[in-house]
Fold this sequence. Notes:
By secondary structure, the chain is mostly beta strands. The protein has one helix at residues 34-44; strands at residues 2-9, 21-26, 54-55, 58-59, 63-67, 70-71, 86-92. The chain has one domain: Beta-grasp domain (Ubiquitin-like (UB roll)), CATH 3.10.20. The chain has a five-stranded mixed beta sheet, with no helix packed on it. It has a two-stranded antiparallel ribbon with strand order 3-4. The radius of gyration is 13 Å and the shape is globular. The mean pLDDT is 94.
Amino acid sequence: MLHLTIEFSGGAELLFNNVKKHQIELPDNRKWTIKDLLAWIKDNLLKQKPELFIQDETIRPGILILVNDSDWDLLGNLTYELNDNDNITFISTLHGG
């Protein structure tokens, strides 16, 4: 199994029943990418308003993704292959006024 820690903050946690941290396991019978993980999150963790999190099979603009505290843009974005014990953080940078 592939063990991951998924964290949501900056308001993104509101879409996940206010649960900020999730420990998940994914089958390791294939390579998992961030793109695969986003689809899995949408189907298994997201509780409301998917349009505020996912847009056209990627993350909605305004949500920063960190992989082990590094910006996912530096790691290949959607094509980054997940590793056991990765920590994936989603931080919403959009705030109402």
